[in-house]
Amino acid sequence: MKVFVNGAEIEATESENVGTFLLKRRQQVLRKTRFEDNPRGMFCGIGVCFDCIVTIDGIANQRACITQLRDGMRIEVTS
Amino acid sequence: MKTADVVVIGAGVVGSSCALIMAEAGLKVIVVDRGPIAGGTTGAGEGNIMVSDKEIVPEIELAVRSRDAWFEIADRIGNNFELHAKGGIALSRTDSGMAGLRKLAAHQSAHGIETIEVDGARLRELEPHMNPDIETAIHYPGDGQCQPMLSAAYFLRTVRHLKGEVWQRTEVLGFLKDKDGAITGVRTAREEISTRYVVNATGTWAGDIARLAGSELSIMPRRGFILVTTPAPRLIHHKVYDADYVANVASDSPELQSSAVVEGTESGTILIGASRERIGFDSRMNMAALERLAKQAISVFPVLSKLELLRVYHGFRPYSPDHLPVIGEDANVKGLFHCAGHEGAGIGTAPGSGELLTAMILGKPTFMDATPFLPSRFQGVA
Amino acid sequence: MSRTIIIGGGPAGMSAAVEIARAGGDAIIIDSNPRLGGQYWRHGADAKFSHDGERFFALQDEISRHSEIEVRGGSQVWRASYHDGVASVWLNDGTSLASETLLIATGAYDRSLPFPGWDLPGSMTAGGAQALLKASGALLGRAVFVAGTGPFLLPVAASLVEAGVKVLGVLEANRVNGWINHLGAVDFSKMKDAARYFKILATAKVPIRIGYAIIEARGDGRVEEVVIAKVDRNFAVKPGSVEVHKCDAIATGWGFTPDLTLAHSLGVTTDIDVIDRSVVVHVDAFQETSQHGVFAAGESTGVGGVDLALIEGRVAGIAIAVQRGLISTMDAKNRSVGLAQERSRIRKFAQALLSVYKIREGWRSWLHPETIICRCEEVTFAQVRNVVHDLGASDVRTAKLLSRCGMGMCQGRVCGRIVADVVGAEIGRSATDDELRGIHNRPIAHPISLATLAKQGQ
After folding, report:
1. Percentage of chain B with pLDDT > 70?
2. Is-cis flag, bond preceding B350, omega within 30?
């Protein structure tokens, strides 16, 4: 399957969550905070802390760590 | 025994506005609240400082003066409470609704409120994400917003700096009176305070305080839910509301009513109101209210369908039988001044109310004729 | 009677489902994970386990054999309520379910303590680091420190070593002597587990340092180095003990917080744990809560680990079967032989562990004024102090509302207890029981799409 990260097409082979998929591609920083513009990545890894939020298919604030990759998914990260 | 010029009961935005203005006028003020600061309706409001939804002349005069007073206070003590003149937009999607809005705008305009009718193109400039099927609306540049809890907290901070005191978690147990029945003091859970003036700024509980003082006052709770979305980059710039809002506030139906009121906040969340239910102090969540609010908000701003609901909160807005605030001395108890029943407008009209009460207590002229607000309109004079 | 709603597909939820199915009943298991197993048996699509997979497969096989048990993975409950004997839940796909019987098996998540730099990318919870590995073999870093307190740090460090991560040290803040004895006290299999972890760590020459903590993480946009220090029995830094080490990630864990969001919405009575003051669901001998028909099992009744969760799940499942009239009380007794004793034995042990690995107050001395307390709203320690000392906030709720602590996306799941403890200390008293309960008050348990909500109203 194919997914798009900031518009770039990337081949994804296994079914996994967006967070681990990005981490394996050295994308540790997933967003910048809205007040201080500080970088954030995954923290709790299980959907509790909302630190790993990214925009998925146009919907903001989606938790990368509990969202499964889907074919054609468009992921926007800020780093 | 403590001594004060004025005891203000209630540490919400209304009580803290009264306390601030009185302390600035040189009065020694003690604020007493049975809970924490801003723990009641103040902590559950959007922070409306609206002139656009006022219809009756005295209400308009109070709202316009209060709006100006808000910015003057910010100049004096510093704007640490997110006060800004964001402006409001009132819309209707029916011809009769728009006709009503135009008529109201003309009336408001004659009483000092700036109103601008805008067409679709201008609307899109003001609110790029608004539903394109909305082609006309009234723009009110004078509507503002603040963060109400921070406002109350900073007002009270200034009161403390002016040698006033704030007693949190202190219940008022009773009143001391002289042989003529005039107030001479307040009995609290902490200690007695000797004072000639008491301000009852206890919102939905104002009737209880009136009864405790041997009088009566009818202030009822009206429940309202507010939806808070997840934070997003600024999408909505004004307070945008469907004009049914104005009609609904004045309605006496106990059932759920709602109309879209949508606005962005400094923290990035978007607030969606406004529902009204007159069902007493019931804090259970009403799914129907949530669903209707979401639907109505999306119909005005389709972009909201891409956002999520993060929190819901409800507040109990205090209202009087004629939906006007009660400001002035009790008809039966000398020295007891009420400042309550502001309904959904309490944040906005708090400073003006405080100015009226301060002038009344000091025996000075008021900035407007306050007769329509006097408690005696409901109270048989003993 | 409607089928039983089981919220949470971890060990407690799975074992309850199996008991209900064995009694001839039906149930639906709802979990945000796509797969059963919870955090303990979290796994990827290929379902590989380094150990303890047998119990999972046995439960999963039995569940899949019973068509009366529906598993709805990847689904989140965003709202729950209880009214007139019926529990209702609303799911993020816009549907809702109602039943006379419901099991809260919502588990727990890592408890975190703040320190300067804990918000940098590369700083994760211990459970988070392990979750990445279990779900897909992803590594949080190449050279990491594991720190905090509790026996859980060992398996996390061991699994990182096995996955090829260079673990630079395991730092246990509490003065514990011989973790192996604590772990071994429960039963022989735990002893074997602990011995295995120690062997892995020893072979990889991972230093285990007792009485040490990470007190700061530093780096330009991500973790590049850590400051570690020896701490006293109260967790205060011992002067002269500070060391700085290079690393590219850290995993910290301070025990667990039961997730009581939905329990709170369902209105069940809760207790405050006497040792760590965490909020736990109050249950009777049958795992039933104060609300008739609502049961709770696993970490939500108090953190106790997988073995306790499995037993509590079984007890709850059997009790639900009785309440639904599926089996007789006599039958239930036969199915429950030994469970009550086993439950009380493990519970006692869990409480003993909790007192050994208790969080001591001195951690607050690690904070700098600019240290983030609330990650979501980026509220600093100085700002929290300010709302108390300058603005007059005199309770936890007011301090939260004035500072925005806990008002963000996670709704105080991460910082709720931290804020309660910090504000309490600033006010000069401990957080009250009701303030601790208030941390779990989230009427909207998880964000729900406005579009979905609007459609529901049609």
Report:
1. 96
2. no
